[in-house]
Structures are given as C-alpha cells and as structure tokens.
Amino acid sequence: MIDKINRLKAEIDALKASKADEIEALRIKYLSKKGEISLLFNDFRNVAAENKKEVGKLLNELKEKALNRINELKENLDSNSQENNLIDLTRTAYPVNVGTRHPISLVKNEICEIFGRLGFSIAEGPEIEDDWHVFSSLNFAEDHPARDMQDTFFIQRSPDILLRTHTSSVQTRVMEHSQPPIRIICPGRVYRNEAISARAHCFFHQVEALYVDKNVSFADLKQALLFFAKEMFGPDTKIRLRPSYFPFTEPSAEMDISCNLCGGKGCSFCKHTGWVEILGCGMVDPNVLEACGIDSKIYTGYALGMGIERITNLKYQVKDLRMFSENDQRFLEEFESAH
C-alpha cells in the first residue's frame, strides 16, 4: 500500500496538461469514485491495525496533493487564456513600424534643457484649474475677455472650474507655497476655445518661465531671452523687444527673433519684415507677487511664455498646426534625424 502511495505521489508531481479536457481526464483518473486514489481508500480496510494510522495519514496527504495539483493546472490554464484574450486580432501584424519622438516633445525638452543651464527647475500643475490660479491671482479684471466662454472652457460655475488657458497657474501655485528665490519653468498643455485651422487649435502646449528674487531687473530678462534665442535658433540670431500689455506683467513686451529662414533680409514667412514673433514677457506685476504672499517691496521678478507649437514651426517649418495631433506615422518619420 505504501509503495503504491509513493508511486502515485511521484506521478502527481509530474502531471502536465495544456487543455481543459486533459485536466478533466487527470481528475477522473485520480480523484473520481473509481479513480486510483479512491481505490486505495477502498483497500484501506485491509491494512493491518497497527499500520492504519501511518497509511491513513499518507492517503490523506496523497489526496490533498492530487487536489492541489489539479487546481494548479486549472489556474495556469485560466491565466494563459486571459493573456491570449488580450491579443487584439484587428491590430496591424508584427513587426509594427514605429515613428520617432514627437516634434513637440523634442522642442519642449530642448527648451527645458536650455533654461536648465540657466538654473531653472521644472514645475508642473493640474490642467483642470480654478479661477483664482488661472485669472484672479494673475491680476485679471473680473470683466477681462479671457474669462468669457468664447475664450475659456469652463467646467462649472460658482466656483469657477475650468481647463487652464496658460501654464501661469503653475507659477502662482509655486509662489503660494514657496519663498524667493524662485526660478522655475512650467511646460504643459493648455486649452482655449478656438476654431481649429492650420494656424490654431483648441489645445496647444506652452512653456512659461518665472524668476523671482531680490534685485531682478529687465536687463536680466533681456539677457536670458538673448541666450535662449541663440541656443535655440543659432548664434547669429538677433532679438528685439516691442512694448505690449499683459495683466500679470508690467512693463510687458513681445519678443521677435530675426527670421531664421532669410537671415533677417525679408521673406514670405516673416512677411518681408525680417522678424518673427515668438513669445511674450515682462516684469512680474507687484499685485501678482502680493496676491501670492510675496513682498513686492523686497522682491522683483520676470516672467515669459511661449507656445511650443510656434517654436516648433519656426525650427522645423511645419506649415499646418493640425499635423501635430493627427498621429500620422509618416509625419513622425520625418523627424528621425532630429534625435
């Protein structure tokens, strides 16, 4: 009896099955009413009285071993079936051709790397924001057009929850919870209610920078902008600053670079002016600093912001903004040499 039990234990340890009917056949062979283990239990009454305790224990262990092994085979089969069900038979057959890193990502990383060399660290924030961080803390008047439904995607009213229209909201969050010196760059996706065309989209990507410390001046801003332009577009790039207006900076300016296609001589791309606008900038308005808990009598700062799509267009001459979000592999393959 003990020899039979040991033989069956060895058999059960070696059991294998890849189909449900094979597992069922093994169950019937060993555990059914007429199975080998059941037959051993029937023969148990013929075992000598002094051996019943030992043999009974071995029989119970054998039955438990068989049950565990059968269940293990079933679990393995179920697991493999679930993995097979994850295969999408409608997808393109292997090997799948892949594109390259998206041009928006390439340019964003390059911008962050350039400002990283100036000591800026990356800060990120939520895309679903409240009115305070997007508008009120940035010195927007209550009747400012940017609050209108024509420009902003509002999710709810009272309190106002919306999709952020710029990454300046990240700057206010950092200023609320940090004290100067603050030197951050804020990349991310933003949303505005615009008609989709070759030159505009309802979402796009921005990079904004903020530097707040003692004695920060407009000269510091101009030097940082010149460094960025030369690193991004080439050492011969020139910049010019034109007076402008933003609620959150004073004084404010728009920055142009010399056209990198014609070298500033004038072409159709720069509308024969020799200059191309790329970003807005200015000194942080004292009202913004005070709203975020920073003493404007001690600290000053500058901020700047640019659309990544705009910079990408200038760098790679992409004529249609919609191509960035069409997920066309042929478009991505054009940027293999940009890595």
TrEMBL record:
Q: Report the coiled-coil segments.
A: 56-83
Q: Name one GO molecular function term.
A: ATP binding
Tell me what organism the protein belongs to.
Answer: Coprobacter fastidiosus NSB1 = JCM 33896
Query: What's this protein's name?
Result: Phenylalanine--tRNA ligase alpha subunit
Oligomer and partners: Tetramer of two alpha and two beta subunits.
How and how many cofactors are bound, per the record note?
Answer: Binds 2 magnesium ions per tetramer.
> What is the gene called?
pheS
Location comes to: Cytoplasm
Tell me a GO biological process for this protein.
phenylalanyl-tRNA aminoacylation
The segment(s) forming the Aminoacyl-transfer RNA synthetases class-II family profile domain are 107-314
